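TA notes, week 10

Several of you asked for a full example with nothing omitted. So below is the full record: structure tokens for the whole chain, then the designed sequence directly under it. When grading your own attempts, check the secondary structure regions first.
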């Protein structure tokens, strides 16, 4: 199905949404927020910001939460995907961005894509990888599936789902045992090596092979190739982060870069590949509960004072709730109102049935979006917004930390309005007379408060075709890579050491059993996008709808044929989908996407077990069973 563009506000009367004027809708939106704050306090309210909207919108959204409401409860879908990357990188290096540029990917000698089907999930980035491969770089792909990315690899390491730490530790142990540690870098720039070495000592390649399914010789080969390369890039996506221990997974990869000195210099780095156009920028702008714009810590009194002076606010001196914690607070009745901007958690969150109940129980839900999503259908007020990629001015920040201009090409249809204008209208109704005539005015405020964006005027961004952060001055540019300080001879310049993290292997929470013997992992396909709200409206010759992908051996054992519809059940519910055979899967492993929740709600069966540091759910490791449908049930394949 396709979604129809929202062109007029909607408000709920009784059980139904009906069209309303902008004045009525804005009054209702603001009135419900005001009641919540008055009756329950500011922390009963939360903002879901949007990783597909501009930096400027995300800045204004988080400012609304903090300066208007007085809460740090603001987050976005960064929590759903790369929050563990931010947490891990920030823990070790002090900032949560990828360390290298795309040009450095092209110039690398070795590239490791770990838990990343970049050919389909990040096709633009993968073109940079292919340039490197065509120049002679070796590509190693670590993935449970033989994906279209793995087809391009020099070597494919097919690990069991949820054994990433075991594999990373075995690689680290082999590097240490073979005398390939970059001792000068480790001794000068890092801390905690001895504790890390003790933790990985047990993970010989042979022991790791039993746990991971990766042959010992391949573990040894990757360890030697990575350690000996002049320039090596270690890149990952949701195959690493969407686990109950996603932050530990990220830290286990960072450890390898510290062992070998593959960070802080040109061509060598660590890169989480962002799946949406501005998921990096949303976090950079402070649309997260623990940082203000420019990744500045809310717990710093000096930082809060500077923002309070600029905003006339009183920012709470404590971290807010992230997305997962906000949902938990809904269960307790502690969070009763949400302002959701461009987010569709009813279909994107794990264990979606539970999420739907939570959203329906909110006392006040305002949804600002371009379509009437399943989340918007639960709202008390729906506000039709602009499409950030073509109906607004502003900036986006991509995976290489490059801030780029986006320019308005079209007016929003009908009565739809610019996101920032809508937020300002609600703020004015709550006693804050906000006016931004242009997106550039917002950006100038960002530059004044965020040192790492200070040198990026709109004029300069246009002239240079984008600028990577940090950019502290309008007269110079920083290196394309981060953390060069770690290589400095002067200890004062080198600063705090990057500390190894001796994390421990922890298997998936959803255990396999006789009742649920198959491991389901999820991911993306090239032709579709997230929950399909935007991509469903466009035909694609590649699109086949949702399928349950099985290896031929499992399909034979289950007695099911390709195209046959089957029931897929987990401990949380059941769905029905047609079978597709995939020789890139090993026995015991199944694969599905989340692109077609209106037809097959895959997140109904995924598990909500979350990473305790980042709050990201374990989408990649659910235990399922597959049952044939009763005789006479509807059997034709929907995807042919």
């Amino acid at each position: 199905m396709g979604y129809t563009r929202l062109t007029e506000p909607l408000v709920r009367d009784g059980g139904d949404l009906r069209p309303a004027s902008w004045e009525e809708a804005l009054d209702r939106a603001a009135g419900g927020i005001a009641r919540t704050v008055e009756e329950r306090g500011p922390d009963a309210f939360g903002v879901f910001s949007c990783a597909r909207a501009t930096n400027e919108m995300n800045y204004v959204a988080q400012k609304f939460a903090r300066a208007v409401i007085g809460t740090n409860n603001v987050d976005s879908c960064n929590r759903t995907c790369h929050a563990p990357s931010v947490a891990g990188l920030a823990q070790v290096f002090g900032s949560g961005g990828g360390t290298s540029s795309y040009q450095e990917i092209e110039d690398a000698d070795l590239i490791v894509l770990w838990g990343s089907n970049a050919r389909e999930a990040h096709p633009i980035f993968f073109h940079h990888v292919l340039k490197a491969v065509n120049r002679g770089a070796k590509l190693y792909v670590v993935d449970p599936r033989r994906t279209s990315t793995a087809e391009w690899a020099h070597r494919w390491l097919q690990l069991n789902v949820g054994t990433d730490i075991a594999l990373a530790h075995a690689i680290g142990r082999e590097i240490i045992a073979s005398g390939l540690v970059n001792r000068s870098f480790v001794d000068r720039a890092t801390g905690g090596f001895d504790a890390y070495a003790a933790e990985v000592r047990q993970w010989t390649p042979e022991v790791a092979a039993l746990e991971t399914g990766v042959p010992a010789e391949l573990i040894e080969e990757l360890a030697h190739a990575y350690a000996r390369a002049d320039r090596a890039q270690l890149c990952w996506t949701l195959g690493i982060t969407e686990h109950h221990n996603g932050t530990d997974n990220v830290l286990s990869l960072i450890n390898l870069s510290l062992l070998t000195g593959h960070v802080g210099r040109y061509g060598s780095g660590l890169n989480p590949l962002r799946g949406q156009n501005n998921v990096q920028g949303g976090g950079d702008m402070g649309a997260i509960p623990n940082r203000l714009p420019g990744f500045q810590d809310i717990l710093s009194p000096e930082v809060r004072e500077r923002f309070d002076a600029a905003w006339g606010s009183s920012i709470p001196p404590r971290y807010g709730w992230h997305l997962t914690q906000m949902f938990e607070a809904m269960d307790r009745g502690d969070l009763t109102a949400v302002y959701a901007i461009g987010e569709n958690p009813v279909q994107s969150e794990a264990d979606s049935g539970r999420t739907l109940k939570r959203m329906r129980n909110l006392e006040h839900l305002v949804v600002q979006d371009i379509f009437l999503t399943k989340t918007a259908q639960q709202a008390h007020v729906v506000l039709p917004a602009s499409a950030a990629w073509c109906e607004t001015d502003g900036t986006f920040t991509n995976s290489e930390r490059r801030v780029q201009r986006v320019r308005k090409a079209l007016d929003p249809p009908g009565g739809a309005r610019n996101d920032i204008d809508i937020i300002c209208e609600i703020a004015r109704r709550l006693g804050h007379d906000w006016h931004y005539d242009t997106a550039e005015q917002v950006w100038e405020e960002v530059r004044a408060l965020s040192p790492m964006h200070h040198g990026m005027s709109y004029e300069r961004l246009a002239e240079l075709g984008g600028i990577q952060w940090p950019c502290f001055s309008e007269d110079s540019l920083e290196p394309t890579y981060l953390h060069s300080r770690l290589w400095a001879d002067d200890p004062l310049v080198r600063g705090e050491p990057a500390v190894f993290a001796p994390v421990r292997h922890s298997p998936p929470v959803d255990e396999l059993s006789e009742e649920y013997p198959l491991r389901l992992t999820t991911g993306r396909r090239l032709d579709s996008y997230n929950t399909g709200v935007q991509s469903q409206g466009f035909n694609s010759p590649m699109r086949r709808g949702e399928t349950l992908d099985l290896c031929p051996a499992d399909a034979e054992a289950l007695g099911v044929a390709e195209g046959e519809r089957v029931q897929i059940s987990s401990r949380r519910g059941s769905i029905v989908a047609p079978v597709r055979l995939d020789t890139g899967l090993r026995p015991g492993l199944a694969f599905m996407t989340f692109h077609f929740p209106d037809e097959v709600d895959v997140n109904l069966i995924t598990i909500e077990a979350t990473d305790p540091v980042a709050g990201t759910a374990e989408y990649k490791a659910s235990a399922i069973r597959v049952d044939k449908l009763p005789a006479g049930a509807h059997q034709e394949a929907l995807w042919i």
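The chain has 23 helices and 25 strands. Use that as a sanity check on your answer.
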